[in-house]
Amino acid sequence: MSETPEPPNRPTFEALGLQPALLRTAAAAGWVTPSAIQAAAIPAVLQGRDLLAQAPTGSGKTAAFLLPLLQRLLAVPGAAEERPRRLRALVLVPTRELATQIAAAAQALAPQLKTVVVVGGLSINPQMQALRGGAHLLVATPGRLLDLTRQNALHLRDLDLLVLDEADRLLDADFADETRRVLALSPRQRQTLLFSATLPPAVQALAGQVQRDALALTAGAPDTADGEAGASGSGAAAHARITQRAIVVDTARRSLLLRHLLRSEAWPRALVFVATQYAAEHVADKLRQAGVAAAALHGDLSSGRRGQVLTDLQTGQLAVLVATDLASRGIDLVHLPVVINYDLPRSATDYTHRIGRTGRAGDQGLAVSFICADAPGSEAHFRLIEKRQSLRVPREAVAGFDPAAAVSALPADPQGGVKGRRLSKKDKLRAAAAAAAAAPRSR
Ligand code: AMP
């Protein structure tokens, strides 16, 4: 991001009111100019405002809440004392990986403060141990946090600042109950910050119940024409840096197509999304059999393994990570060139988060989605995803993997079927998908 030209009228970090210690650590992280969301959010948080902030994936959201939050913690006299008496700040997130990542960022920006991570899937005892001396900042997933409050290992009575990162996920059906319980344990008089790349209207309505007079911020991608706060946060703008491709293929040939693309496109690293834990293992297995350094990432793996495969992808030990939606939110894989939707995501929101793993911090990215010609609904589902983004992605077929080609390669039957047999249901679906792919469509 620092290599891109400085956008006009973007203030400096100094002008945003950050104190010298944080200016130094931000500079040490290589951050020269605040991103749009940082420029908008930092002064508002320093003034004590509640925020409902929407900004694209990879646009520097973490620092947008961490920098002012840490400044407020540091402003307290004797803040850097070894045994903080009160837990004043909590960042709540949906996954362990995101918690670990945010805590590492906080530690790097303010090493004089004590940041503790509490997440499920790991032994609780070391986390209780870490909390024993108190903490300035806690980064947590909701379930484990509630466990620890039940065991009196911590309380939230002194919280001044509460951040819900990936707020829409924390308020959706899977997490809403736990998130509400966490909110109920914290004081009413607190500052509450909600951040996400996607904030559907239903979540915005819920936000009104947990915030006071929140300032709504929508900021575009860094360094782009839509980069100023207040600009439209539409999906198209959010993905300005990500080229999207859609390839029509038979379900059973996706694995071969994936191998073909990895070879022919020579991407150094790739993140492949699938629908289930089984598929993650299965696809990774097939890739390994073909000599590709691949691994699976899903919720059934140990925390250690999950962390290890992410590190291995980052360091180049792995060429491909085949993941469930566990990896779709917040994870910051620096300079990841491509995300592949082997299975389409369930929703347009998940699509936004998945493809947001590439094209981060000013990089260009590529997102490739497989549309299954023989799966009824695959094309229609992708159209819905396009509609939500107000974007049309041209359908492609890859030579040798064109579903229509497989049928048309056979001798033609004057009745319209393949010679020697009637047109099967599958053939009809293929033909319909090919026709849909070829036909120009309005938005
Ligand atoms: P985030 O959206 O918070 O996950 O951040 C995405 C990436 O942008 C991370 O790798 C950050 O280190 C990086 N980043 C955050 N703020 C800035 C900035 N002001 N300038 C350059 N890079 C940044």
Question: What can you see in these coordinates?
Answer:
α14 (348-355) links the parallel β12 (338-341) and β13 (365-372). The longest helix has 14 residues, at 61-74. The chain has helices spanning 20-28, 36-46, 61-74, 96-109, 124-132, 142-150, 167-170, 176-185, 201-210, 235-238, 254-265, 277-289, 303-315, 348-355, 378-389, 403-408, 425-438, and strands at residues 51-54, 89-92, 115-118, 137-140, 161-165, 191-196, 215-218, 242-249, 270-273, 294-297, 320-323, 338-341, 365-372, 395-396. The chain has 2 domains: 2-218, P-loop containing nucleotide triphosphate hydrolases (Rossmann fold); 241-422, P-loop containing nucleotide triphosphate hydrolases (Rossmann fold, 3-Layer(aba) Sandwich). With 443 residues, the protein is α/β, with parallel strands linked by helices. The protein is built from 17 helices and 14 strands. α2 (36-46) packs parallel to α3. The radius of gyration is 24 Å and the shape is globular. Residues 1-6, 221-237, 405-423 and 434-443 have low confidence and may be disordered. The protein has a 7-stranded parallel β-sheet, sandwiched between helices. A 7-stranded parallel β-sheet has the order 10-11-9-12-13-8-14, sandwiched between helices. The structure holds adenosine monophosphate. Adenosine monophosphate binds next to α3.
